C-alpha cells in the first residue's frame, strides 16, 4: 500500500533531508497515563507531550513548538473544566521551571528550601493545581525542543519571533490552534507567566481577545517584569529599598530592634518610608540639603544593612549588583543571589562592585537540567537526540513598543470576567516584590479594576515555589483564584 505524500509530510521529508543537525517532527504527540495524589485525593491523568506547528502566512509550518499537556481523567464535563496555559520567561527560557517545580503533577527532588539533593530526579507534587484545572506548558521558539523550520528555499525570519510583540502575535495563533485541537473553546481559560513570561501573558490577554476572539477568566503574573510601565529615575531608586530590607533581614544584617521583628512587620515601615520620604528627597537630586541627605543616608543604612558611608558614596543610589556584593562582604565574605538572595556565592576576591556569578541560577540549573531530561524521556516517553534548551538563542530581542501592562488593563476593561493575580518573592532582587506592587498600582490609574487585582508575596525569591512551604501556599492561592473567578452557571458577563 502506497503512503500518501501530503504537503506536510513533504515539508517534513524536505526539512529532514536538508538539515544536517538533529531534528524533530514538526507535528507529533506521545501520550501516557499516570496517577498523582493532590490534597489527599488520588486520581489519574493523561500526559500528552509533543510538537505543534506555528503556521506561516502561506499555511506552511515556520516553526514547531514543544509542549506538554496534562488532562485529569474521569471529567465528564470539560466545558466547565478550567484550562491553564503556562509560560516561563527569559526571554529564551524553557517551560521547565514551573512545569517541574510548581503547578505540574511532578516536582524536583530538592530539599525544603529548594537546594539540590542527589540522586537527581522528581517526585509527585501533592500541591499541583491539576486537581482543579488542566494545564499545558508551552516552549516558545528555540526553548526546550521548540525550533524554527528552515528549508533550502526558505530561511527563518527571526524578527517574526524574537521580540515583545512578535512573540505575542505568533503565540496567540499557536494557542488558537491548540485550543481548537483539544476541543476546549468552551472551557474557562487562564494564562500564567513567570518573569518575562508575565510580559508575554499580559500582551497575550489582549491579543487573544482582540485578534483571536478568545476571552480569558484570569491571568497570573509570577515575579512580574515592569510590563512597559515606566519607573526610571527617583521612583526606580526608591523602589529598591524594601527589597534591600528584606534581603538584609534574611541575612540578619538589620539593627537588633528591626531584626527581632517579623519580616512582615518590618516591610510596611520600609515601604512607607520609601514612598513618602525617600522618593521626595531623591526628586531634588544634587540640590538636596546636605543635612537632609545625611539623614536620608542614615535611615537607608538602617533599612538596608549597608553602611551610611557607602550610601553617601553612591549619592543615595546604590545599584543592585553592588548590594549583592556588599551586604555580606565584611561579615562572611559571601555574595548573595540576584534572583533569590537567600543563596550565597564565593567570588575570587572580596573587592569589587558586583558578584562573579549568579549563585542561585547555578544552583537551579544543577537540579533542573538532569531532572527534566530524565523526566521527559523516562516518564513521558518522549525520546530524542535534540538538545533540550534550558535557555535558547533568541537574541537580539526587540524590546521596543512594550505596552503589555496597558494591554492587560485594556483586556480587563473590555472583559468584566478577567481577573489578575500577582505572586512575588520577598527575596527576589531581579523582579522585586515592591516593583510588582508598583506595577499593580500603576496598571489601572482609574482604580476601577482594583477589585479584580490581587497581590500575594512569599518568603522566598524569584521562583518562590522552590521553598516547600511556599509551594503549598502559592498553589493554594492559584487554586483559590481559579475557583473564585470561574463564573457561576448562567451568570451574565456585564458591569452592573
From TrEMBL:
Gene Ontology MF terms in the entry: serine-type carboxypeptidase activity
Keywords: Carboxypeptidase, Glycoprotein, Hydrolase, Protease, Signal
InterPro entries membership: AB_hydrolase_fold (IPR029058), Peptidase_S10 (IPR001563)
Superkingdom classification of source: Bacteria
Signal peptide: 1-19
GO process annotations (BP): proteolysis
PANTHER family attached to this UniProt entry: RETINOID-INDUCIBLE SERINE CARBOXYPEPTIDASE (PTHR11802:SF3), SERINE PROTEASE FAMILY S10 SERINE CARBOXYPEPTIDASE (PTHR11802)
Name of this chain's protein: Carboxypeptidase
Organism: Sinomicrobium weinanense
Amino acid at each position: 500500500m502506497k503512503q500518501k505524500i501530503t504537503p506536510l509530510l513533504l515539508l517534513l521529508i524536505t526539512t529532514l533531508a536538508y538539515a544536517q543537525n538533529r531534528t524533530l517532527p514538526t507535528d507529533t504527540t506521545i501520550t501516557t497515563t499516570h496517577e498523582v495524589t493532590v490534597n489527599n485525593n488520588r486520581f489519574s491523568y493523561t500526559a500528552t507531550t509533543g510538537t505543534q506547528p506555528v503556521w506561516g502566512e502561506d499555511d506552511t509550518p515556520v516553526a514547531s513548538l514543544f509542549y506538554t499537556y496534562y488532562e485529569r481523567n474521569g471529567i465528564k464535563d470539560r466545558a466547565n473544566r478550567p484550562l491553564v496555559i503556562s509560560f516561563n520567561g527569559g526571554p529564551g527560557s524553557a517551560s521547565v521551571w514551573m512545569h517541574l517545580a510548581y503547578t505540574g503533577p511532578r516536582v524536583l527532588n530538592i530539599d525544603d528550601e529548594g537546594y539540590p539533593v542527589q540522586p537527581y530526579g522528581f517526585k509527585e507534587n501533592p500541591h499541583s493545581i491539576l486537581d482543579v484545572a488542566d494545564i499545558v506548558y508551552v516552549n516558545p521558539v528555540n526553548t526546550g525542543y521548540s525550533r524554527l523550520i528552515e528549508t533550502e528555499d526558505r530561511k527563518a525570519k527571526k524578527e517574526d519571533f524574537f521580540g515583545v510583540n512578535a512573540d505575542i502575535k505568533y503565540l496567540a495563533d499557536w494557542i488558537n490552534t491548540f485550543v481548537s485541537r483539544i476541543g476546549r473553546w468552551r472551557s474557562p481559560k487562564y494564562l500564567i507567566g513567570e518573569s518575562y513570561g508575565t510580559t508575554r501573558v499580559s500582551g497575550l490577554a489582549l491579543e487573544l481577545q482582540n485578534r483571536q476572539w478568545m476571552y480569558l477568566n484570569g491571568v497570573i503574573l509570577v515575579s512580574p517584569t515592569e510590563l512597559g510601565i515606566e519607573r526610571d529615575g527617583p521612583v526606580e531608586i526608591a523602589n529598591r529599598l524594601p527589597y534591600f530590607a528584606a534581603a538584609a533581614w534574611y541575612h540578619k544584617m538589620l539593627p537588633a530592634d528591626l531584626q527581632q521583628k517579623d519580616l512582615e512587620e518590618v516591610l510596611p515601615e520600609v515601604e512607607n518610608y520609601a514612598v513618602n520620604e525617600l522618593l521626595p528627597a531623591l526628586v531634588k537630586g544634587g540640590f538636596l540639603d546636605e543635612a537632609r541627605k545625611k539623614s536620608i543616608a542614615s535611615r537607608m543604612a538602617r533599612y538596608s544593612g549597608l553602611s551610611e558611608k557607602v550610601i553617601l558614596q553612591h549619592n543615595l543610589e546604590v545599584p543592585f549588583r553592588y548590594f549583592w556584593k556588599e551586604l555580606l562582604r565584611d561579615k562572611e565574605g559571601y555574595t548573595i543571589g540576584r534572583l533569590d538572595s537567600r543563596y550565597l556565592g564565593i567570588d575570587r576576591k572580596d573587592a569589587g562592585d558586583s558578584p562573579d556569578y549568579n549563585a542561585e541560577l547555578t544552583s537551579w540549573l544543577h537540579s533542573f537540567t538532569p531532572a527534566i531530561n530524565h523526566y521527559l524521556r523516562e516518564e513521558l516517553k518522549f525520546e530524542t537526540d535534540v538538545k533540550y534548551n534550558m535557555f535558547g538563542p533568541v537574541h537580539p530581542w526587540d524590546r521596543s513598543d512594550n505596552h503589555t501592562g496597558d494591554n492587560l488593563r485594556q483586556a480587563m476593561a473590555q472583559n468584566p470576567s478577567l481577573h489578575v493575580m500577582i505572586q512575588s518573592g520577598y527575596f527576589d532582587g531581579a523582579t522585586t516584590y515592591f516593583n510588582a506592587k508598583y506595577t499593580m498600582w500603576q496598571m489601572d490609574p482609574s482604580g476601577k479594576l482594583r477589585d479584580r487585582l490581587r497581590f500575594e508575596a512569599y518568603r522566598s525569591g524569584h521562583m518562590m515555589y522552590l521553598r516547600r512551604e511556599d509551594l503549598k501556599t502559592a498553589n493554594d492561592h492559584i487554586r483559590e483564584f481559579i475557583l473564585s473567578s470561574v463564573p457561576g452557571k448562567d451568570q451574565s458577563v456585564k458591569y452592573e
